[in-house]
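Bug report

Summary: structure tokens for Transferase differ between web form and batch submission.
Environment: batch mode, default settings.
Steps: 1) Submit the sequence below via batch. 2) Compare with the web form result.

Sequence submitted:
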Amino acid sequence: MLISHQGKSPVIHPTAYVAPNAVVCGEVTIGENSRILFGAQVIAEGGSIQVGSECIVMENAVLRSSSRHDLKIGNNCLIGPNTHVAGCTIDNEVFIATGAAVFHGAHLEKGCEVRVNGVVHLKTKVSAGKTIPIGWVAVGDPARIFPPDKHQQIWKIQEPLNFPLSVYGIERQEADMIKITRQLSTVLDFHRDDTIKKSNQDKEP
């Protein structure tokens, strides 16, 4: 399903494929021979999403951008099932495995791998060819990689990155769930005016 959001519509290369129950919404560009598979959600809200050529976005993956963070994916990348990729830059030939998460402002250089349930935190830069092991966490610039039970070491690097300010525009000391959800409610209300566009797979009668 292709959806126009705030006057901006997806641009899908004629050789690309978007599954009938995938959603591509807003200012999204999908390149040559890329495949957006069943249940995937590619949602641009105030920022753009670019997916390069010969990319595979697997079932139920979620790709998002926001007014603060565009999402850019290079060529020949694979985004695995049930992943979450938000407002980051992914260079060519990157593999992101099932259940992984890559957060706002992160940068994965060419040939990185984020294995099953791996996490790349806010503003983290992963060097070319680096691997995030199964379930491990990358944080910082340059990235340091920790097992998930090392919360204190992760938090020491993560806290100054100020997730509430970077993602929601609210200083950490002022952030609470009322302010965050109220702001998101306003932003997401813009979807009321969305319109469904003709799928690029539909044939003219």
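Above is the batch result. After comparison, the two runs are identical; trailing whitespace caused the diff. Residues 165 and 171 are 5 Å apart (CA to CA). The longest strand covers residues 41-44.
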